[in-house]
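Reviewer comment 2.1 asked that we show a complete input and output for one of the modelled complexes. We chose the adenosine-5'-triphosphate case, as it is the one discussed in the main text.
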Amino acid sequence: MQKSRQQNPVIEFENLTLGYERHPAVHHLSGHIHQGDLLAVVGPNGGGKSTLLKGLMGELRPLGGRFIWPTGRQQMAYLPQRARLDLDFPLRVADFVSLGHWPRQGAFAAISGANRRAVHDALHQVGMDGFEQRSLDSLSGGQLQRVLFARLLLEDAGLILLDEPFAAVDESTTQDLLALVHQWQQQGRTVIAVLHDLNQVREHFPLCLLLARDVLGFGPTAEVLVPQNLERARRMQAPFDPLAPVCDLDVESAMPEAHRHD
Ligand SMILES: Nc1ncnc2c1ncn2[C@@H]1O[C@H](COP(=O)(O)OP(=O)(O)OP(=O)(O)O)[C@@H](O)[C@H]1O
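Response of the prediction step:
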C-alpha cells in the first residue's frame, strides 16, 4: 500500500439510490470519500447501512444515480455482520486466515512458506499467537473477531468495509481492533464501518454518514452527530415498507446542500 494520501476522492456517490425490487432503502446519497478517510455509517435498524455496503461491493445495482470510482474501482475487503457469517465448521484458524490471499493467488494455489509467515504475522498482530491449529468453531466470540481481522490483514485491500465489527466484542478486544483500524488509515487505506456506539464514532471516526433511509447528515462527525439530526433519526425509525411507492428516480436530487460532504 502507498502511504501517500491523495487529494482526489476515491469514491463518489452521485444522487445514489439503492434498494430492493425497486423499493429504495437508501435515498439520494451524494458526496465523496478520500483515500485514508475513516467513515462511520450510523443510523437506526433498517436505515440502509448494510445496503450501502452491499452497493459498494457491487452486490446491488443502484436503482438510481451511481457510484463513481475516480481512481478505478478499489480492491475491497468486507467483514459482514457476525449474524450473517456461518463459521460453525471445523476449519483450522491458519487455513481460514490464509483464505485472505484468495483475491491475489486463487483458491487452489499451494500455501507457500511466505504465505504461512504472513498468516503467522497476521495472527500475531491481532494477539492470536499459537491459535493456528485451533478449529474456528472452538473460538470465543472475541477470538473469532480477532481472527476475522487477521484475514482482513491478509487481504491487503485499499478499501475496507466493516459491518458492525465490534458488536458483542469486549472493551479490550475492541480497543485492539480499533488500533488496527487506525493503522490501516496510517497506511493510506480507506475504512468504512457500520457502527452503533456513537461515543466510539466520535472518538475514532472523523467522518460520519447518518442514514435513516434518507441521508440525515454526511460530513465531519462533530457536525453530523448533533442532537437535531439524532432526533430526526429517532423519528424516522419506520420499518421498511415493501408496499411503499416506488421512488420517482427521475426527480432531481432532493438532498439539501447541507447533507453533502464536499
Ligand atoms: N434482500 C432484501 N430484500 C428486501 N428488503 C431488504 C433486503 N435486505 C434488506 N432489506 C430491507 O432494506 C432495509 C435496509 O436494510 P439494511 O440491512 O440496509 O439496514 P441496516 O441499517 O443495516 O439495519 P441494521 O442496523 O438493523 O443492521 C430494511 O428495511 C430491510 O428490511
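Residues 8-74+158-262 form a domain with the Rossmann fold fold (CATH 3.40.50.300). We note this here for comparison with the apo prediction described in Section 3.2.
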